[in-house]
Amino acid sequence: MTEPVFSLKDIIVTVGDNVQILKSLNLDIYEGDFITVLGTNGAGKSTLFNTIAGNLAIDSGKLLHHGHSIAHESAVTRTNYIARVFQDPKMGTAPRMTVAENLLLAEKRGQKRTLRSRGLTKEKISEYAKITQVMGNNLDTRLNTATGNLSGGQRQALSFLMATRVKPELLLLDEHTAALDPKTSEQLMLATNEQVTKNQLTALMITHNLADALKYGNRLIILNAGDIVLDVRGQDKSALNEADILKYFIA
Amino acid sequence: MSIIVSSIGQGLLWAVLGVALFLTFRILNFPDMTVEGSFPLGAATAVAMISHGINPYLATLAAFVVGAIAGLATGLLYTKGKIPILLAGILVMTAALSINLRIMGSANISLLNQKSIFSSPLLQHLPKNFDSVFVGFIIITIITLALIFFLQTELGQSFIATGDNANMAQSIGIKTDRMTIMGLMLSNGLIAFGGAVIAQNNGYADINMGIGIIVIALASIIIGEVAFGDLSLNGRLVAVIVGSILYRLVLLAVLSLGFSTNDLNLISAIVLAVAMMLPQLRKALKLDTVIKKGVATHD
User: Fold this and answer.
1) What is the ipTM for the molecules in this complex?
2) C or N terminus of chain B, fewer CB within 10 Å?
């Protein structure tokens, strides 16, 4: 197999009074992996994301990006190649700025932001109308609306588009549909799957929905008490059912 | 008539403070107390330099730089030192008191018989009080146009996003600490610049001239918002300027009722408090249901 894009080796992360959240965790992420991440509350899923994104420091172990350690890089530096969508619709967009302005901001991820004009041209607007249309929730008709006035589903769809506007080497989806109603949630999940598959994105997606975890992605991992207890891909993943998975949920 | 012209002139000159404070109070979303120190700091710097024979235009620009340094100090205390913004501002404001005394050498220096930006021959030909209107108009126009340009650049948009949602800004690679420091430097630089201009207009710098500055600057922001409601970001900057002029006219009206200039700080505070409560009062009294607090930067 080829070199992994990201590699976590014997990662230990502790918080507070020596409580180990990640216990010697190992994970290789390859290009094109669409990994669904399952686990009970407190299993370490969010800690895993925060560790990769750079919001939490590792106590020991190695965090490699194309074989180079990125443990010393700040979270902001890592946004050059890692993008993230949060669970809370309020977290991923600037509420007083319009949809188009938010997209423009996201388009500069990984680039220097200078005193050049932001370049909100007619061409840009029609391009944005096109890319927002695929989300299928009327976002394309609200490009000049402040995002604070959008519905939660529209905001999350926008957050997703912003995260993928510049193709990241890794996309972290942190229960990004969990705060939405079932119908909106399913719609966003379908759009997510389509975009990730079509653009061959490498993604990690935390979910509490077992059906989603089985249905989407080409790899599945289960975390329990700070370690990966199941890691399957391809056909092995397709062969799983909910009962198989629940066996790994015993804390 | 001339007293109204004078008020408009003062409103235009003081509008610099409102527009500068807008950058921190409305865009970064926090109250920056540093301005009470950077305003007299700018005044002291310019007046001290002028009285040492330095070109008044250069001295006024130097005031901007010194004010920006005060903003930098607050920004570092806040972002790197993790001191709450209100306290960080108060610390720098307090420290500036001593620095101002050092710069001025005494509690008050006069510009009597010294050249200032108001002594250019062109201005001498204008009728009384029109010099402030003229200078104020030119200065605020240039500053506002520059800010409108800046806020539409990539950097300006990153600055706005930092105040709007720092978490999101970081997640798309914006260095929010830098943006915050930049905003504080720009804001306090402009406040100090305003201090330098106003000191030259008054003909002196005084150690106590910073007291109540934040209330005056806030009053122009809030009065502008109450008067005009929802506007685009550019419109809101212009509303601050109009708010500053309206505030001067309100003061004029109050003074004509027989209050003395000693009452000004009390009156300023009451005007600001009333303006800030107005949306609530209107709601309570159901006078007007469409007026909203100006929170939307666009549309």
Assistant:
1) 0.91
2) N
